[in-house]
Design goal:
The chain is an alpha+beta fold. The protein folds into 2 domains: 71 residues, Roll (2,3-Dihydroxybiphenyl 1,2-Dioxygenase, domain 1), CATH 3.10.180; 48 residues, no CATH class. The protein is 20% helix and 38% strand. It contains 2 helices and 8 strands; from the N terminus they run βαββββαβββ. The protein has an 8-stranded mixed beta sheet with strand order 2-3-4-1-5-8-7-6, with helices on one face.
């Protein structure tokens, strides 16, 4: 697996945009549209960086809201990684499936935490 993206928790995503626009823009990353409270930056095949409020509703701080996303080749790998993580003592943060759940193509992922509480996602993209 390779790293697909990371997220960084923010207290105020919109207020954080000028800093990230400047800092990441200086190294060639571009920002997509602000969508549902998320802002994503990307550059070619490099791992993306997403800014968001932490999903758990707690105050953003270093480490809270951070999630490492690993890109898989297909849905079978996503399902296998999720099952293996749970079998090794991980906790479920979201079963394998499309996001949003009503989708039938696009982002397909699973979420888990390790014993320390670090949140991981394994995902792939599925064409219609």
């Amino acid at each position: 697996m390779t790293i697909g993206y990371i997220t960084l928790g923010q207290r105020d995503v919109e207020a954080a945009l000028p800093f990230y626009d400047a800092a990441l823009g200086a190294i060639g990353y571009g920002r997509g549209p602000l969508d549902g409270g998320w802002a994503f930056y990307g550059k070619g095949d490099a791992p993306g960086v997403g800014l968001c409020k932490p999903f758990d509703g707690q105050e953003a701080r270093a480490g809270n809201g951070v999630m490492i996303g690993f890109k898989a080749d297909n849905r079978d790998q996503v399902q296998a990684a999720h099952a293996a993580a749970l079998a090794q003592g991980g906790t479920d943060e979201g079963a394998p499936g499309f996001r949003p759940p009503e989708a039938t193509s696009g982002f397909y992922g699973a979420y888990m935490r390790d014993a320390t509480g670090n949140k991981l996602c394994v995902f792939t993209t599925v064409e219609a």
